[in-house]
Amino acid sequence: MKPVFAFTILFLCAHVAAAQDYFAAQKKYVNIPASQVKTSDGIAAYINAHYHTDEDKIAAIYSWITSNIKYDADSIHYVILDEDNEQRVSFALRRKRGVCENFAAVFNAVAAKCGINSFMVEGFTRQGGSIDRSGHVWCIAFLNGEWGLYDPTWDAGVVGSLNQKSEFKYFNADPEIFVQSHLPFDPIYQLLNHPHTYNDFEKGFSAQNNKGKFFNYNDSLSQIKNMDRLSRYAKEASRIENAGWPQARINTKLKRIRFQVEVLSQDDDAELYNSAVSDYNAAIGYYNDFLSYRNNQFRPFKSKDEVEKLFQNVSLSLGLANLKLKKIDSSTATLQLNTGAIKSKLNELELNLKKQQAFYQNHLAEVFNGK
Question: Which residues form the Transglutaminase-like domain (predicted)?
Answer without folding.
Answer: 92-154
